[in-house]
Amino acid sequence: MSTPSTPARLENPPAGMSSTASGTRMALIAMTAIFFMWGFITELNGVLIPHLQSVFELTHARSMLLDSAFFGAYFVMALPAGRVVARVGYKLGIVIGLLIAGAGALLVLPAAQMASFNLFLPALFILATGVVVLQVAANPYVSLLGTPQRAASRLNFAQAVNSLGHTIGPYVAGLLIFSATLLSAEQLAALPAAERVQTVQPLYIGVAVALLVLAAAVYFFRLPALFEATEQADSRPHGFAEVLRLPHVRWGVLAIFFYVGVEVTVAHFMVKYVSQPTIGGMSERDASLYLSYYHAAAMVGRFVGAALLMRANPRRMLPLYAALNILLLLVTMTTLGGVAMWSVVAVGLFNSIMFPTIFTLAIERLGPMTEKASSLLVMAIVGGAVIPPLQGLFVDLFNARLGDETRALQYAFFVSILCYAYILWYGWRGSRLSGAGLPGAGPSGAGVAAAKD
């Protein structure tokens, strides 16, 4: 997500230009690794949820509590994370985020050792809290590294690497979780729950080690520690209520809520859906590969969409992409086999531009109020904690009534269709500027000019 490019300074300015360039390059390399890691971490739930659902024999609705624990951290911890970063600065904020995420990954180990589903919930909440701190700190840090003219280029590259993490995460997770022993799938299923759940431990040990190594690298390397002073541009204080009175912000917060909710929902039902006998007819391990295809499609779509948006009006592209996803979901709800499978995978292609486009439209022409609007938009990522359990509840209801899990999974996609319908409306009507209450001239964020009519 992009943030306003504002004047910045170094806490300890280097002695020469070459030192500055070297520090910037090192910082960009470190940030690239961090963006990859949080994309990777976010997608582990897509494989972890069906695995734990099978191990603990959970309902669809209860298994989605893992999503609620992870994405609920965005709502609860976004503002505290902002205060931490404001107090310690971006560099130490990034280090703290990495350490918190590493601690959360390590807490998965006793949860698995004790075979306790309930202990997985606080572990994932803490892991997600670290990711929230990284979101708050790393995005503006990348935008402030180097020249302001290339801020959008740096952020697009970082987001593409983030998408790579989303793409690789499910494949690696499926490989490690389902191949952690030399047993066949049938032999693994015959093991007690306490032994099957421990197959997640190698994955989270690796995640914890990677996060702690990155934290050490950021702390000890001479990376620029940048200050961002957007609040200094305020001629008077602006409250969150004042920001929410602007319709394109208010409806934009809801659009982010529904978008993240539907993106996570489709992803986290992907493995269970594709593995159904009349859809893909494969094991959950093999089905996890299609979750990677889903995110790979989003990564490709992000590059293509970025090129198209150089000329196209985002207020037309956003509703068009939402309409295409509605069509794809209708296809998967009414067909079986390869058509149903590939139509739901293709949803990822048209998800690609939605988050950055909604974000850009929602912060358009906000000037000094951009920072508060950005905080509200980050909090709206809590949609990933609300929509998946809601759709899971309908899966359980339909399954109890029909006695057909495949049909239940298909019919429950109506929840996702409603989310895309709102996004379509936001792009078409809700994102329009009202004029009343907008601050005067001034930059409102990277890429905002592209969002104007």
UniProtKB/TrEMBL annotation:
Principal place of residence: membrane
Assigned keywords, A-Z: Cell inner membrane, Cell membrane, Membrane, Sugar transport, Transmembrane, Transmembrane helix, Transport
Domain Major facilitator superfamily (MFS) profile span(s) in chain numbering: 27-433
Listed Pfam families: MFS_1
Residue ranges of the region described as Disordered: 1-20
Residues spanning the signal sequence: none
Cell compartments where the protein resides: Cell inner membrane
One Gene Ontology term from the biological process aspect of the record: D-glucose transmembrane transport
Name of the protein described by the UniProt record: Major facilitator transporter
